[in-house]
Design goal:
CATH class: Mainly Beta
Oligomer: single chain
Helix content: 25-40%
Structural class: alpha+beta
CATH superfamily: q2cbj1_9rhob like domain
CATH architecture: Sandwich
Number of helices: 9
Radius of gyration: 18 Å
Number of domains: 1
Largest sheet: 6 strands, antiparallel
Strand order of the largest sheet: 1-8-5-10-3-2
Distance between the termini: 43 Å
Length: 268
């Protein structure tokens, strides 16, 4: 569970770091599962069609540890403490990043509430791809002021005053959807796993915002799947959706995701 200091840090700055949350045995398993999925991407099967950024879901039976991460008490317990017992776990994705990532938030609609758990599988420093945050930019009016002043126009990520979130394998970072973040000087295979949670919408405005986010997410993930695999599979593996262990928590997520539109087919 988060301490009061960690909750305060998250609310004030928009992120919190959990040092060495994952142990060496877990990291060994995660690396093997990520390597298995990465080996099936266009980078290896169709190198002439290689795209810079590869991203894929990890909710299938071939990646059992990663598929179970959203339900890990260390992960979902944090989400439930911040957003309530009915917070919804949306995904466990992995990606292989290349070079820099421009400044951006993951959401601009402040009726949508959620955050991402992210961890990298290589040691990262400020100059080789570590996440950079603009602390406090998850709150208005600062969020909008940042947008007006940098948006996507800044030529060099490192020109913006920011906190460099240097990490070692095993460290996990949780950050608010609205927090401005970027990276600088990354390698051509910077491996990251992310687990995403949203607050279960409880007002009409939150419901509308979450449904809009679901439509955008379905389209984005379909595009990433086409860019990553010769033959893309579904975002949500049927095995995971079947919920074979009859987890009440997972079933709540599946039911709510269906209601909100996250399980819909992408529009053609």
């Amino acid at each position: 569970m988060l301490t009061e200091q960690q909750v305060s840090h998250f609310n004030t700055f928009g992120f919190v770091i959990f040092r060495q949350l994952l142990n060496p045995d877990e990291l060994k398993t995660i690396n093997a599962e990520v390597e298995l999925r990465l080996s099936g991407t266009k980078r290896y099967t169709s190198p002439d069609d290689d795209t810079a950024y590869m991203s894929w879901p990890n909710l299938g039976p071939e990646t059992p540890f990663l598929a179970g991460l959203p339900e890990d008490p260390r992960i979902c317990g944090t989400a439930e403490q911040l957003y309530g017992a009915d917070a919804v776990g949306l995904s466990c994705n992995a990606g292989s990043y290349v070079n820099n990532t421009h400044w951006h938030p993951d959401a601009d609609d402040f009726h949508l509430h959620g955050f991402k758990f992210a961890f990298y599988l290589q040691p990262l420093r400020a100059t080789d791809g570590a996440l950079r945050f603009i602390p406090g930019s998850h709150r208005k009016p600062f969020h909008d002021e940042v947008h007006q002043n940098i948006g996507e126009s800044v030529q060099e990520v490192c020109a913006v005053p920011a906190y460099s979130c240097e990490t070692e394998p095993g460290d996990v970072v949780a950050f608010d959807f609205h927090l401005w973040h970027a990276s600088w000087g990354g390698s051509t295979d910077r491996r990251m796993v992310s687990v995403i949670f949203i607050k279960n919408p409880c007002t009409p405005e939150e419901e509308v915002a979450t449904r809009k986010a679901a439509v955008a997410n379905v389209q984005l993930r379909a595009t990433l799947a086409r860019n990553t695999f010769d033959t893309p599979g579904p975002e949500y593996d049927p095995h995971w959706l079947e919920n074979p262990r009859k987890s009440a928590k997972r079933q709540h997520w599946i039911d709510r995701m269906g209601e909100l539109g996250y399980l819909s087919a992408p529009q053609s």
